Amino acid sequence: MYENITYELSESVATITLNRPQVYNALSPGLIKDITAAIKAAEADHSVRVVVLTGTGNKAFCSGADLKAGMEAGLSLGESLRRNYNPMILAIRNTPKPVVCRLNGLAAGAGCSLALACDVIIAAESAYLCQIFVNIGLMPDAGSTFFLPRLVGMQRAFELTSTGRRIYAPEAAQWGLVGQCVADELLDEAVSKTVAYYKNAPTKAIGAMKQVLNQAVESDLAKMLEMEAENQDVLSQTSDAAEGIMAFLQKRKATYQGK
User: Fold this and answer.
1) Do domains 5-199 and 203-249 have the same CATH topology?
2) Over the stretch 156-193, which tens digit does the pLDDT of each residue have?
3) Domain 5-199, CATH homologous superfamily name and number
């Protein structure tokens, strides 16, 4: 079904692995379309509670755009972004399922944007992010100009984008670019712990949180208060909410079904 990724389902977890190791998982038009389709497939699958996004090998999560593969015939760079990259980023941000990035290595250019679009980033200590666009006379795209200032502030965002320097996982964690930085050999264990939490969490509530938080950076307080009220009305009718309240009253651990 997919030519450029592997897609695995196991115990409510969909794992999407970029699988172009010969080019450090660089983004070709085909790979971008596969990622987008896989995210949408996971969203449509009611058995999926959490998505993991990672790359093949231990050197690269994603090395950015595959300049040798080029763009689809007849498309300008802007058109390629609108047709391919932007829908991929929006699919990740808009899916109600939590998306965990297993940052196993280099995340450069649009590969960095791809990582930043995820809800949680767990990085191996040797991994690094790099806004390499400046090295070829371009500006960041695929969402980096949106994510970076919100994560690290304007001055640090400017430094990273204008110099293109590498920021390794330990420093990235200090800056808030990644959620966790762990020793390389502990990466899978750390990802598994996070995934175990989300696959047993109240999935609909998590999805609502993601939707509302996405709006928070652009909305005023009054709009956010109304969005909270609207979503709480919906969530209060879910099975998970009923279970959570009953478990609280009975002083036991809740068992969520994601419904």
Assistant:
1) no
2) 999 999 999 999 999 999 999 999 999 999 999 999 99
3) 2-enoyl-CoA Hydratase; Chain A, domain 1 (3.90.226.10)
Task: Give the dihedral sign, CA 23/127/85/109.
Answer: negative
Selection from 62, 3, 57, 56 nearest residue 33 by Cα:
3
pLDDT tens digits for range 14-51: 999 999 999 999 999 999 999 999 999 999 999 999 99
What would the CATH number be for the domain defined by 203-249?
1.10.12
Domain ranges for the chain, please list them: 5-199, 203-249
Rounded Cα–Cα distance for residues 87 and 231 (Å) = 25
DSSP letter at 27 equals B
Task: Please list, in sequence order, all residues whose beta carbon lies within 8 angstroms of the beta carbon of residue 123, skipping any fewer than 6 positions away.
Answer: 103, 169, 172, 173, 178, 180, 181, 182, 187
CB 178 within 8 A of CB 172: yes
Amino acid at 146: F
Question: Residue 23: is it exposed, middle or buried by C-beta count within 10 angstroms (0-12/13-18/19+)?
Answer: middle
What pTM value is reported for the model? 0.89
Q: How many residues does the chain have?
A: 259
